[in-house]
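residues and backbone:
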Amino acid sequence: MKTVKLTVSYSAVVFKTVVKICRALNIRRPEELSLLKPPDDLPKKKKMKKDKNPALEEILDMDIFNGGSGGTGSPLYSKTMVPTYDPENGTPASATSLWFGDNPLTSSQPNLPPAELAKMYQQLSMVDKAIINAGWLDSSRSLMEQGIGEHDRLQLRFKYHCFFDLNPKYDAVRITQLYEQARWSILLEEINCTEEEMLMFASLQYHICKMTMSTEPLDFSNEPEIDEVEAALSNLEVTLGGKTDRILEDITDVPKLADSLKLFRPKRLALRSYKEYWFVFKDTTISYYKNKETASGEPIEQLHLRGCEVVPDVNVTDKKFGIKLLLPVADGMSEVYILCDNETQYAKWKAACTLASKGKTMAYSSYRSEVKNIQSFLQMKSLAPPQSAPDLDAMEINAECFVSPRYTKRYKTKQLTARILEAHQNIASLSLNEAKMRFIHAWQSLAEFGIKYYIVRFRGSKKNELMGISYNRLIRIDMSTGLPVTTWRFANMKQWNVNWEIRQVAIDFDQNVSIAFSCVSCDCKVIHEYIGGYIFLSTRSKDQNETLDEELFHKLTGGQE
């Protein structure tokens, strides 16, 4: 919702242009962002909205590349304010505010009135999303080559959904822009979430709105400095994979989960009836038995989780803690539902399933933090028993601003206000930045997070299908049902290339699996760049001093051998 006017080079490749724009706006890790050209035929409602709300049309003029100070009176960036970076860990040596001053891009935009939001809202099918995703500019060509003219409007967006080294001390703009992107994707239902999750996001937005209106300008220079020796030790601990006194234990013990859980396999025309079994989770495999006593014998079935999709099936209010597994089989995906008894059990099993789907076991150092993240996410969803009935008049902002228009039709304003205030009691003590970070983490926990859709046609197939691209996998999706058919992980990818003559992307995976497809909704370069970009981002490490290996990026995304 902020329009920034910038002078950039028309002849420089888009990758360089984005780096310069991010430098001007003070956004670290510019490789995660890119420029998106909105389609001409989809967002008609957005144009209507823009005409009617001149307050949001305020343009921030930053003519910084010509050395001028722009229309803001105090430029956001000047060549004398370049941060110095710590050579050890690549983070800026001084806090953002010390070399950056007050920045209009660090404060969140106020929520739109419900009527304005309703004008912007339009139900997007996966096909609509594919049309929007076709608009990413080619990073290896210039703006001029891609027909972008003067005064054209492009959207600066986080394109790659793996956010490296998010640090509130240095990333005030980056965190706010991420929060905004997450918030709009939820309000406009570009990503699906349950009603319970929508209310949790609404309470966080309300909290952030309230804090933004009441907070003094943030000054990160007062944050306590981390002791260098402590930081080095904790880095060493991460490198070694957990607490030092646990290392031997982790090597000798292969962690195992064993619990009594319920299982259900969907069959046609069958009711969902769960049956109790004794489950054992070891390495990346779940085995289940009739009961605990028979666990020493042969299992009824083994579920191999490597390469599967793990989807939460949770309703905290109804005390339902389910995990939906989509397991790869020869002709697509097989569905299995597992039901846990409580939050703690669910957090352990869901974390183990998520790691196993990536081919990692519970011995992996991130297992404990994954369990904690799931628990804190569930905690935010659970409505704490109100200490007192929420005062509905205490909410000065219309509750309908914080949820997607679909929910304003379903509930009266008073009902929404009461539910948002109840959910708000869980997070009322969070600081502004903590709340934004919590919102971003909760967004990352959604099942559809970071999946970008494209219409493709697989080699040998006569019909169009959807391809979902995420930060760690490719998903083949049935266009009529919207359900995943097969998943391929980047970790198992051996090589990929493009046949430019027939515009076809070909990918080879482990175990002699090969796929090839042509792109229907966009040029095949867009998909090729997405895959290469994610591979490039996976090569980053903290000791790189934030220098970008542009040559490697173009090598991985350019499509030339």
Q: What stands out?
A: The chain has a mean pLDDT of 81.
